[in-house]
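[#protein-structures] MJ: dropping Proline dehydrogenase here for a structure pass
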Amino acid sequence: MFLVPQKRFSDLVAALLNDYGTDQGDGIVASASSENVQRHREPASLSSLIRSYGVYTICSVPVIVDWSPAILKFFTSIVGLRELTQIVVRHTFFAQFVGGDTVNDTVPLLSHLRKENKGGLLAYSVEVDEHEATNHDLQSLPVYKQNVEEMIHSIDIAADFEASLGSVSGASRKTWVALKMTALTPSSQTLIKFSDFLLQNRPTDSGVVYPGLPHPSDLNVLEERTSLKTTPSSLSQEEIRALVELRDDLFRICKRARERGVKPAIDAYALALMRTFNKNPSRRPSSFTSLFNSNQSIQSHDTQPLIYGTFQAYLRRTPEYLQASIKDAKQNGYSLGVKLVRGAYHPHEIEHHRKRHTSALTSLPPVWLEKRETDTCYDNCIGVLLSEVKNDIKSKANNIGVLFGTHNWVSARKVIEGLAGHGLASVEQGSGGLVHDPVIRVDDDVSERIVIGQLYGMSDALSDYLVDHVRSPSPFVIKYIPYGALAEVMPYLGRRAIENKAVLGGPGGASEERRRAGAEIWKRVFG
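AK: finished. structure tokens for Proline dehydrogenase:
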């Protein structure tokens, strides 16, 4: 995904669909959990420990992280070096951070994680090359259409994996699928232009800071009667058709997800999809009634919410945005799926705002200026969401579900403490300190509404800590698992390093991961 437009995609999809983020993660670094709560897990092989040590040694050098996309591009552009580079990357960074070349290749990893009581969030981590998107063999689908089919295929693999485990209810089906907007359209510029169009034409009386809130009129431009007769000056008819096609493809993907009982997590706020697919069947809009109520088998594992949209805590609007979204869900009878992350594009948002508002020096950027403000926003949202979950369970409704995406120890512990404090979990043992933190137990009602996620290959100490300290009938922790052919995900690997620079460089980041791997290697070799 391109760096600057990420936040704007949230607004874009808010309209387009009628709208893992990472931490800037300082926090507390803990050793593995205490023996009396630590669950059995297979020890990492010596070769994987050596690989991790090497990878995180490189990730500990900020200059290398910053230049990694350019370095990869340079070496892969030279015949001879390309093959050598791919071999090195495959056995280091690819093996550390990517689940496999295909979604089928991720199944052994999913099985391994489930043995450790962890779920998975599958992410086809490719984007569309705009030249390839418009220059394809007539006998084949365009690349972005192939991506649509791949995401549908990943839904089927996720569903089949859960079925192999005997998972029936939606609460226990903890293999989800990520949907990437930039992989589903022939040109990212269309998304950017549509985002600009929304910001120029959306009513600004919401009382929420820039870029405001999604509005019911956002999708009007995609209606057939509008797009075929009149064209906004900032959007061509071809671009409108591409946006309509994207909307229809997303509905098709989510229809399959609902049929197979797999939850999609969208890298933006997907209000319209939630309104359509996250509704109680008796309250769906009439235009979708025949489509989704005709086959009763669809309801067999339809635990709501089905679709999760992303809320980024580094945006100033997020507190009001979250409250407005909760209110909208209640008023319109659908379940709100929240994927709460901090956000990974802070420096780029500041620079983008500076360029757009050179004459308005007093205008504040859309993101918080200080990291501590983002941390405060994230932690405050934790409290709001846990309170909503408590009320939801009390009223026997099914109106909200939350994925807390965080690598931050402080925030993760706030979730655990908040679960106990809101009466959503019982405390079983331990008190105070990191090693002897309380072990809590949650029931099905909580397990089906709350999970915590981290990126695959990162923050394993935190993931293990959460597994050890939260007793849950289904996985409470899920790992975000990118997959794709090596050549396709090389850009992802370089960019992901930059996006996660704060995580890699902060306490508990690459240096700590390297230290942990080094200590384990020393223990294995020298006893």
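MJ: nice. The first strand starts at residue 118 and ends at 124.
AK: one more thing. The CA atoms of residues 75 and 81 lie 6 Å apart.
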